[in-house]
Amino acid sequence: MISADHAIARFRRDLALGIFARALLLVTAVGGVVISGSRVPSGNMIGSALMIAVMIAWLALNRRAARRSRQVADASSLIAAGRFEEAEKEIELGLREFSLARTVKLVGLHHLALLRHAERRYGESAILCRTLLNQRLGTMGNIARPTRLIMADALLETADLTGAYAAITALYQEKLSLIEAVQLQSIQLDYLSQIGAWDAMISGWREKVDMTEIMPTEVSARSQACLALAAKKLGGTTLSTWLVSRVELLIDPARLVAQRGVLAELWPGQLPVSGNAPAEPA
Amino acid sequence: METPKQQFLDVDRLLESSEVQTRGNYLPLIFGVVVLLTFMVGQALADAMQASPGVVTALKLAVMTGVLIGVSSFSVSSLRRYQRQQLLLQSIDELMHLRRWPEAGTSLERLLSRPARLPQVRVQALIYLGGVLSRYHRYTDAIRVYEYVLEQVRLDAPTDLSIRIGRAMAMLHEDHLVDADRAISELRRHPAGGASGAVALVEIYRDVKTGHMDDAIRLAIEKRDPIRLQLGHRCGDVHALVARAYDVLNQPEAAQQSYRAATLLQPEVELQRRYAEVARLAGKYAPAQQPQGDA
After folding, report:
1. Are A45 and B64 in contact (CB < 8 Å)?
2. Domains plus CATH for chain B?
3. pTM here?
4. Could you give the CA distance from residue A66 to residue A61 in angstroms, rounded to a whole number?
5. In sequence order, which residues have a C-beta less than 8 Å from that of residue A23 and are 6 or more positions away?
6. Neighboring chain A residues of B156 at a CB cutoff of 8 Å
7. How far apart are CA A112 and CA A10, in angstroms?
8. Which of B228, B234, B238, B260 to mutate to test the interface with A (most CBs of A within 10 A)?
9. What is the reported pLDDT for A30?
10. Which of A45, A178, A245 is opposite residue B97, by nearest beta carbon?
11. pLDDT of A180 higher than 60
12. What is the mean pLDDT of residues A160-185?
């Protein structure tokens, strides 16, 4: 299993190598042109051969990068299907092989962060996300949003509320897809419940409840439980009871309470397992 | 002469028009020819214009730059076309999530009316088409789309399973009970089928359709965990079908309880639209009420 530190070191080295290789190709091509135009004996022949070699190398490396890019992209469906070992292999291959395109490396690192998040290794996931977001993403800017979402959730899981807040705020500046907006809402509810911002949680609850219906079961149940808790804190017993009834149809409350101790207030019989106690309001 | 009006989401037409255009990959060949030409022209010019090698150099540089720009623009324009189709596909997915079926249908019509850039985009669009057709109760058309995809495309196990589930559901809605039974047997043998909550839903619907109400209730209890975990709010469908089963068995209290659970998770009108059997329960049992006003 590739460690986050090792992956990051490899990623940085390969990016530097990629820049060097591109510069080398460019210098060789220009050199070829200059030589072919010079009065050196057989200069035209040598120069043209150099240019052809550069073009062939450029074409071959780009084709390889495109193929590898498709393979790395497959890793996300493997992660979604829970086939972590296969995903790990694909990602490792993508990160290990040299590629002229930065895209392969960036996507590879993004998928590694996604994989570590799915494996609940949140610390590593957050480090990988941060490294990726510190890069100049250029045309790959579209992976910044999902990466930031993964980072916000990972930071929340590691109880880094300040980091999670920064990541959530940065996402407000972005135009999100529906699925991303749904993910952000679940992270935000989780964050707000941890700092006890009950008013902010309950504002616009109808729209929030609608959004929870398209979340995966466990996330949906957790978000609705957070809303139920906020309603209870603010004296909205009817809403709280309604939401609790929905949650109980989706998941065993003990499982939720084990994940988020703060939710024990909704099911007094269930005791929190981990030390995920409610934080003081910021 | 009057032109015949096109049917909305005409399956035959869309299957034909969306065929992936297979284009030979001529890029390396063009590239090779240009490089060779550059070399030959450069050689000829170098021989003829010994006195001015700078012109030869400039010419070669111009040709090489031209080739690089041409190839790059071709790649960028292909990528943009592909991204446009991907974005449209994503917006269709969102519209379906939001239950905005007419807009989803219109976007699918637009996407599938021209050749797809990539087979994966077309397959995904066809899967969405099956879903939209089912929503419009055009089950025969939905079955055609699903069967076309199953016959023509090699799919990964989860996608294959979800299409087979969609097809079996459409068969049940269309009362093709023998075909549906065969389809369900295939689902059970499917590598990912045994533990699937969605397969359980299909089986429960089959049992309700064929009057095996006890089996439907037993299966719903037995498969409670995968149903809840995998279907999320759609497990309201199972509660609604179980309510119907209890109703037929003349157990009104249990039916009321299941109907309430179903309508806690899904809007009542949506459940009634989805299953004719559930529509018969309307007015007979009280749905769960969503709280009104602010918290």
Report:
1. no
2. 195-290 (1.25.40)
3. 0.81
4. 9
5. none
6. 77, 81
7. 13
8. B228
9. 82
10. A178
11. yes
12. 93
